[in-house]
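Why run this: before we spend reagent on co-expression, it is cheaper to look at a predicted model of the complex and decide which construct boundaries make sense. The entries below are exactly what would go into the expression plan.
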Amino acid sequence: MSPLSWRRLSALCRKESFQIVRDPSSILVAFILPVMLLFIFGYAINLDTSNVRFGVLMDDAGPAGQRLLQAFKGTSAFEVRQCWSREEVLGALAKGELRGAVLVASDFSTKWLQGEGAAALQVLTDGSEPNTANFIGSYVQGVYEKWDQEAAYDQGLTPAPVVDVRIRSWFNPSTVSRNFLVPGSISVVMTIIGALLTSLVVAREWERGTMEALLATPVTKAELLLSKVIPYYVLGMFAMVLCLVVAVFVMGVPFRGSFLALFGISSLFLGSSLGLGLFLSTVLRNQFNAAQAALTAGFLPALMLSGFVFEIASMPKVLQWLTLVIPARYFANSLQTLFQAGTIRGLLIHNALFLALLALFWLGLTAWKTKRTLD
Amino acid sequence: MLTRLVCLIKKELQAILGNRQGRILLIMPIILQTALFPFAATLEVKNSTLIIYNEDGGAASVELVQRLSQTAAFTKIIMAHGEKEIREAIDSQNALLALQIPPDFSRRLLNRQTAPVQIVIDGRRSNSAQIASGYASQVVNAFALEQGGRPLASISLRNLYNPNLDFKWHVLPSLVAIITTIGCLIVTALSVAREREEGTFDQLLVSPLTPVYIMVGKAVPGVLVAVAQGSFIVLVARFIYRVPFTGSTLLLFTGMICYGLALAGIGLFISSLCETQQQAFLGVFSFMVPAVMLSGYVAPIENMPVAMQWVAHLNPLSYFIPILKGVFLKGFGFGQAWSNLWPLLAIAACTVRVALSMFRRHIA
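The model came back. Tokens follow.
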């Protein structure tokens, strides 16, 4: 008995493919879910803060105060609501109707002229939304400094020498968060396809009793494993092409890298996530549990620890080490580079190496755990 | 009839908790997630690397570099000796951002002219890079203001409810909602599908239980799992992470039960459409991910396109998270929470109703 018979392997692959194609839910996962997720990640996660509901309580009727009010109303990030009492502001902040507010007291102009040491403005933010609160704090500072310069110039006060900070963003000049979130989210989508679907396949055979039937045939371990890997690999590559097309042509995310590199990295990544899914399925032999385990070990780390939204460098050291074994980390980083920056060889080779190691690890572990016996 | 219901619920709980693997899978993920995510899910920028190319070398520029190296956001500062090094450091992601100080920087400041400096950020990580460049700009501007001229009257900034803008205070209350979503949906949606796949559902149907009872029997364990998992995370948040809990405990549990019901309805609705566990699982997944993304947890709802805002308003999570944050941080009682509680109740009523009619139709 040869270890690998093409005839048996292709027959098994055909059977597996039929099972995929005939189950509408796998089509949902491979084609509808990726597109839906890309749109949600690309448009719903908008980190470019805008339309912040911001309250202004203006007790200074003088020209300086009015001018400041206009300055706030003229900003692009704030949707200004004028408030009439401190209680109104606090109530609206508690309910989440406002994310922040500036309180301008009646002695604002005096304090402003007095200069150093005086607190001219009071800013309140809703700290339960720390990202927005942080943004409001520095944005108000910016508006105030700009207003101050103009007002000081008009009053004939000498303006301070200013350091003009010019910010340039490489690769993504207009800093659209979509441009880096969409490539990152492709790695999450591919994790779903790779790990979730496969986590069910071996367990299903056990649950339905068809594994016993399979084991009664002369099929070898290698054939069994490959017949599970190959169809899902093909499915994953289809989904990858779909993601690429949607990202580039529908969502307008630029792609600057080489397709060959993309193909290579995606294959390695699929290898590792298919391996993880199959491993869980082989070990747990129960669809319900394998699905939950895949969610915990595959999807959630891809979402939280891949660095696609949350910066890895900001995490505690222990977590940073943990991210080293998460395939989505290398894939998200490679995709962000390939889409935005182009083929940066050193970085991609490093990522490819780690992905290959992880793929070997999971597939090897699965092979080791796959037994040709019933218990 | 009530005893039958109790028996059914007991049997369901046994099916979930009866074997070791199942128990581990209901408990382990929660422990892992509460241990990891509060540290991972942060948009703060810490420990990032700044590369500086100082072409000037004058006193002012050296002072500026000094100041930047004392900033907590940048734990590592690399000094570059040319633009090529900057390009390489950003390309290979060895540095998140670069600062370039032009040769005439100190001279221009002395002559009271505007002195430009350039910050280059890595657009592949534009969000964190922008936050980091915000920190750098603040340092630079504060430095500039001290270089003479007219000192500026300051702004007093107060962050209500979370004075130090600790991200964990935002993550943990939201985590209560997110983790219970996973637990409750999987338990309700997959339990029916599993019975169908194993053929035991037909046995349930020939028992004297009516469809309503079967449905209640499937929904109650889901709600119980949600409340148990939620309470666990609340306790961890309160006593291990020391997130303040300032609101009403009764409101917390009312919210949790309403939310659990809304989820159970959704779970049963999904399971009534599905033949197999795989389909049910994927159905849960297709609901859960958009629900988490469109809840305002990762990015505020008001930033989304209008169509997605509508969807967000139908999402039970968009109401449960504000209730949780209110109960933890804002001292909410029923009065303040009402504007979020009634939509949650309405959604729960709708999903349970729809699930029931789907359930009946499927059985008949």
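The mean pLDDT of chain B is 87. The longest strand of chain B covers residues 115-122. Bring this page to Monday's planning discussion.
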